[in-house]
Each structure stands twice: as C-alpha cells, then as structure tokens.
Amino acid sequence: MKALIIEDELRARKHMMHLLTDNFPAMEVMGAVGSVKESLEWLSSHDAPDVIFMDVELSDGSSFDIFTQTEVPSPVIMTTAYDQYAVHAFEVNAVDYLLKPINLADLKRAIGRVASGEAVKPSGDAIRSLIAQVRKEKFLIRLNDRIVPVRTTDIAYFYSEAKNSYIVTLGGSSYVMDESLDALADSLDPSAFYRISRSCIISEGVIDSVSRLMGGRLRITLRSGLPSLTDLTVSRARVDGFMAWLEK
C-alpha cells in the first residue's frame, strides 16, 4: 500500500512516518508535504497513492482547499484535533479519521478500512458537508518570522478592503489574513459569527445595539472600547437573516 502524508507540522509528520514504517511493513510512504500548494503540485505530478493522510490545517490554508482546486483520486484519512462533533462528520461521510495524538489502534483500524475497500474517496458533497461542520477554534497569523495564534473567542470581526482580508481582535489588534471572507465563512461557528455584508463578518458578542436606516438596512454599534469600522451596515438582503440570528 502506498501513502501520501499531508501535514505541516514537522514533528507530527515524522511521527506519522515512523508509525507507518514501524508498524506496517507493506506500507510505502511515497511523499510528505505540508501545504496546499505542495499538495496540489504533488498530486499533479505523481500517480495516485492508495491512501492519503491529511491534516486539516496546513501552512497556507485548509486542506479542504485542495478538494476545491483538484480531483483527489484516493481515499483520505483525516488527522485532526477537532472535537467529537466534527470527528463524527468525517465518519458519517465515509472518510475515516485519526484524532491527534494518533493512537496505533486507531491507525490500524483506519488502514484496515482502506485495505478492505470500506473507505472511499470523498465526494464534493461530502467535502462541503465536512467544511460546514469543522469550525476553526483559532487562526495562525504569520508575521515575518513569527506566528501569532488568535482564538476565535478573541475576535471582534473580519473585514475586507482593497482586496485584502483582515482579522480584528477584541483588544484592537488588526492582522492581514490569507483567506478571503468567502473561504472564512464556512469555517466559523454560525451561532457566533454572521456575515452582515460582502465585506464584513461580525461576532455576536461585540454588538451593543442595532439601529434602522433608510432603505431597510441596519447599522451596528459595537460595545464601548472596541475598534470600529467606518461602515458596520447590514445589507438589506441580509437583514432578515441577521435578525433571526441575533434573536437566537
């Protein structure tokens, strides 16, 4: 059986390689990559492996970005640190999972599923379902030679401006992000965040009040002390959905 490892953490990548080579003599690791870009390049230039071990968060985005940009021809076993709600989503969609730190018994079960033909390559609908259920708990912001982790509970809002996307924290820090708001929307908890317009996604916890404007739109005022955008307007097309979200 031939395998590809997609994992951006070097220690986790080495650990997976050792688990496979030490416990599965017939397993051949064809390659190991750590980013969406490297994964796309590898898949386009190599024969399809029998199985792909794929981390969720990669150095340049989400592993789900791979599925939106190319056909993934192999069964995929996700390796994830997400909670049981997300893990069950993988299982329901016939894509096996390994919860980090990886347990050898779980690894044997997953590989057994692939070998027996139980694990199938995920369909586009399955991937979209997974994306909708895997919620980010934190974002890793890269600043030159530093990485700044920002938990979603510390985020006031996201916004886009001049083709760039930004994340603004409760403390007033602002960071440029690689992801677009379109890509972010599916990875956020819909009970905690709402996209009020094409250029802004806001956290429910930072809203102080909402006032009505002419034309059926709404204007949001943030709690005192929080950094505010010049335009926190709920577009007319999103007003009904926003009010239903706010009333929950």
Write the layout of secondary structure elements.
Elements: E1 2-6, H1 10-23, E2 28-33, H2 36-45, E3 51-55, E4 57-58, E5 61-62, H3 64-69, E6 76-80, H4 84-92, E7 97-99, H5 104-116, H6 124-133, E8 138-143, E9 146-151, E10 155-161, E11 164-169, E12 174-177, H7 181-185, E13 193-197, E14 200-203, E15 207-212, E16 218-222, E17 233-234, H8 239-247
Parallel strand pairs: 1-2, 1-3, 3-6, 6-7
Antiparallel strand pairs: 4-5, 8-9, 10-11, 10-14, 11-12, 13-14, 15-16, 16-17
Overview of this structure, please?
The protein has 248 residues and is of the alpha/beta class. It contains 8 helices and 17 strands. The strands form 5 sheets. Strands 2-1-3-6-7 form a 5-stranded parallel sheet, with helices on both faces. Strands 12-11-10-14-13 form a 5-stranded antiparallel sheet. The longest helix is centred in the N-terminal third of the chain and has 14 residues, at 10-23. The chain starts with a strand and ends with a helix.
The overall strand count is: 17
On the 0-100 scale, what is the average pLDDT? 82
Order of strands, main sheet, comes to 2-1-3-6-7
Shape: elongated
Q: What is the N-to-C order of secondary-structure elements (H for helix, E for strand)?
A: EHEHEEEHEHEHHEEEEEHEEEEEH
Portion in beta strands: 25-35%
Figure out the total of helices. 8
Helix fraction, binned, reads 25-40%
Low-confidence stretches: none
Computed CA radius of gyration, to the nearest angstrom: 21 Å
Which class do the helix and strand fractions yield? alpha/beta
Q: Largest sheet, if any?
A: 5 strands, parallel
Distance N to C terminus: 49 Å
